[in-house]
Hints:
2 helices
Amino acid sequence: MDGYTFEDKLELFGTLGGAFLIIMGLVALASTPWATTESTAAVLIQVLGILIVFALAVAMIGFTYADDASNLLPGDENAE
Length: 80
């Protein structure tokens, strides 16, 4: 049985970590934070936190599969 092969052993952990964050963000969103409190500010903070989790997950997966991650960072002389 042939399994998946990874060039870097940490690539698997970056992908699984990003997928875990996406699942946790979906679970937090499915728990309908706006139904548990009457405060609009609290709901906005909760939804903002969920969006930050999604952004971190996408960034983690993006950095994992980037050929040269330094090009993705701001301030790099090779960045366009």
